[in-house]
Design goal:
This protein is α+β, with helices and mostly antiparallel strands and 236 residues long. The protein has three domains: 71 residues; 98 residues, Lambda Exonuclease, Chain A (Alpha-Beta Complex); 27 residues, no CATH class. It is built from nine helices and five strands. α3 packs antiparallel against α5, α3 crosses α6 and α7 crosses α8.
Length: 236
């Protein structure tokens, strides 16, 4: 969750202020579209892969990002090639019990508060439904994100998912956990504290804490942020 990385950056997102699109996010978005299409419609033949990618770009908001990123045909072709390499790895992952892709939740637990999330894939297993998040880069810290998905599922379905898992298609790294009621409760309390902090900041016009990290390079509120400037300088 971006709030745990940097509260002020998350507050900007809630105000509708986002950093610039990046080639990496575009590539990741296209890969996720391809993964979902594979699970829903079956394996994509290599001779059709480029056309399928262009169809997915044209039928989604990725189409607008092509111009924003200044992706010329040659650059777009290289992105499609990179996604193709990821897809070859994705095809090796088991798909038994597949139920649905890109499952969207928007839950209003209390007036004026909407909790929104999209789960990449859901699998029906003997232990219950497993929620899976695909990563196209390094796995990174995923426990909080998966915990949030488990909470959304519990709020919507009235029961815990049987498992939550993040898989890096690029590296093969995995993180898996069996959600518990205490863990979901802890996540709900963390989200409640975040909401209280955001509301207080907006009511008083004050800033939230700023924390430097790799996310600073494309932060929409980087200007004037000492922590962000230091993080960007360190990362080169």
């Amino acid at each position: 969750m971006s709030y745990c990385e940097c509260p002020e950056r998350a507050a900007a997102h809630f105000r509708g202020i986002y950093g610039p699109d990046t080639r990496a996010s575009f590539s990741g978005g296209l890969a996720h579209r391809v993964f979902a299409r594979h699970l829903d419609q079956g394996e994509i033949e290599s001779v059709q892969f480029e056309q399928v990618c262009r169809e997915e770009i044209g039928s989604s908001n990725l189409n607008y990002k092509v111009a924003a990123l200044g992706l010329k045909p040659s650059a777009l072709g290289r992105v499609i090639e990179e996604v193709g390499l990821l897809y070859e790895k994705f095809k090796r992952l088991p798909a038994e019990g597949y139920e649905a892709s890109e499952v969207f939740f928007e839950i209003e637990p209390t007036a004026g508060v909407s909790l929104v999330g999209r789960i990449d894939a859901v699998f029906d297993e003997d232990s219950g439904y497993k929620l899976v998040d695909w990563k196209t880069g390094a796995l990174g810290e995923v426990a909080l994100q998966l915990g949030f998905y488990a909470m959304l599922w519990a709020l919507d379905r009235g029961e815990l998912p049987g498992g939550i898992e993040a898989i890096s298609v690029a590296t093969g790294e995995r993180y898996a956990e069996v959600p518990s009621r205490s863990g979901v409760q802890e996540t709900a309390e963390r989200v409640a504290r975040m909401i209280d902090a955001l509301r207080l900041a907006w009511e008083t016009g004050s800033d939230l804490d700023r924390r430097g990290g790799p996310w600073c390079r494309y932060c929409p509120v980087l200007d004037g942020c000492r922590e962000g400037a230091a993080a960007v300088e360190v990362s080169g």
